[in-house]
Amino acid sequence: MDEKYHLAIQTAFASEYAFALKAQNFHWNAEGASFYQLHLLFERIYDEVYGVVDKFAEELRALQIYAPASLAKFSMLTRVEDENAVPQERDMVEELLADSEKMANMFKIVFTMAENNGDHGLSNFFADRQDAHKKHSWMLRSMLK
User: Fold this and answer.
1) Helix spans in 63-143 (H)
2) Which candidate, 4, 22, 1, places its Cα nearest to that of 95?
3) Which top CATH class is 3-76+85-143?
4) Mean pLDDT (the chain, rounded)
5) Domain ranges of the chain
6) 67: Cβ contacts below 8 Å, ≥ 6 apart
7) How far apart are CA 61 and CA 64, in angstroms?
8) What is the spatial distance between Cα 79 and Cα 99, in angstroms, rounded to a whole number?
9) What pLDDT is attached to residue 141?
10) pTM for this one?
């Protein structure tokens, strides 16, 4: 059992969940001149991410790794910082963009780990997640221009 590999996958899972929660937070609390566009963009992002969380948990279980499933465990593992304030709209976009880029990089790392462990189906899943975050980043970056 490769503890480092399993911890990296659990960290990616918790971070992905935290990312979705932050996008939903921003969706609920967006306001300002770009409210409607951001409200829809944030919803699109969290819907896409939540849409793969169950599959991600099942990938963990297929490897006999327990999926973290408590707020305390998510908080301990995530690399996406919690946002307790309600930032201005531009700050929301910048923060979610930085987190999306962090997620894309995280999935690049766990992709390589999965490949090195011969978990090719899982590495394909991670490649798809990296691509999804690159697309989220592109959309968020475009809102800043």
Assistant:
1) 71-77, 89-116, 120-143
2) 22
3) mainly alpha
4) 96
5) 3-76+85-143
6) 10, 13, 56, 57, 60, 61
7) 5
8) 9
9) 98
10) 0.96
Q: Which of 21, 18, 45, 22 has the alpha carbon at shortest distance from 140? A: 45
Is the backbone of residue 32 left (phi > 0), alpha (psi -120 to 50) or beta? left
Q: Looking up tokens 């659990």, which residue turns up?
A: 10
For 12-46, write each residue's pLDDT tens digit: 999 999 999 999 999 999 999 999 999 999 999 99
CB environment 90-129: b (16+ within 10 A), e (fewer): eebbbbbbebbbbbbebbeebbebbeeeebeebbebbeeb
| Cβ–Cβ < 8 Å for 79, 60 | no
Whether the pLDDT of residue 6 is over 80: the answer is: yes
Check: CB of residue 74 under 8 Å from CB of residue 22: no
Q: Which two tokens stand for residue 80?
A: 């996406």
Tokens 């990089």 map to which residue?
Answer: 105
69 phi and psi angles, rounded to 5 deg: -145, 30
Enter the tokens of residue 63: 């490897």
DSSP H or E segment with residue 36: helix 35-62
